[in-house]
Amino acid sequence: MGTAREVFGDALPIAERYAAFLANAGVERGLIGPREVDRLWERHLINCAVVAEAIPDGAQVVDVGSGAGLPGIVLAIVRPDLRVTLLEPLLRRTTFLNECVELLGLPNVEVRRARAEEVVEEFSMDVATARAVAPLDRLAKWALPLLRPGGELLALKGERAAAELEEARPVLKRFGVRTSELLQVGRGMVDPPTTLVRVVTDREVVRDGAVGRQQRAPRRAKASRKRSS
C-alpha cells in the first residue's frame, strides 16, 4: 500500500472504495475474476494509474471498451483534471460503471453505452485509452476515428506489444498516423513497468472520407521511450 499512497495521494480513499467494489460486485457480476482479488492493486489499479504519466493536463479522454473501468475510472480518480468518457456497449457493464461513478462521486466521468463506430460523429477526443480490448490492428479501427487531429491512442499491452505494433502498421498508415511507439510508464511503481502503445494521428485525419481540420497536438507528460517510428 506504500506504492498506492504514492500513486494516488489524497485520492487513495476513493481508490480503496473502488477496489472494494471491484472485489465484491465486480467479481459477482463477472467483470473481475476471483483470482484477481488478491492482486487488484499491483496488477490492475496501480498498473492503470501510472498511465496518467503519459496524458496531457486537462485532456478529454475516452476509455474504449471500458469494462470494469480499467483504466478509465482509475485515471479519473488519480487525475481529476481529466474529463473521462467510459465507452462500453454492454448493458451489465454500463450499469456497473454508473454505480461506480455514483459510489465514488466522480464528477469528471460520463458513462456512454455505445460502440465506438456509433459515436464517431460526436467524439473529438484528445486521448483514447484501452486495456485488454482487442489486438492493436482492430483497436485502432475503433479508437482512432474518435480522436481529434493530433490526438493519441494509449493502449495498455503486454509481452506482444512490439509484435502487435508491427502487425498494425498497415492499418495505422491508412488512418494517417504520424507517430507510433512503445512507452514504459510507472518505473519504480510497478514491476515490470506498464507498457503502452502510443499512436498519434496526423494533423489531418481521415474520418469517413472527410479530412479533419488542422490542430496542434497537446503537450504530453514525459515517459520513457522504447521504440519509435
What are the key terms here?
Rossmann fold; single chain; 229 residues; two-stranded antiparallel sheet; alpha/beta
Task: Using the CA coordinates, give the radius of gyration.
Answer: 17 Å
Q: Structural class of the secondary structure composition?
A: alpha/beta
CATH C-level class is Alpha Beta
CATH architecture: 3-Layer(aba) Sandwich
Instruction: Write down how many β-strands occur, each being a DSSP E stretch of 2 or more residues.
Output: 10
CATH topology: Rossmann fold
Mean pLDDT: 88
Q: Give, in spatial order, the strands making up the sheet with the most strands.
A: 3-2-1-4-5-7-6-10
Domain module tally: 1
What kind of oligomer do you see? single chain
- Please give the alpha-carbon distance between the first and last residues: 37 Å
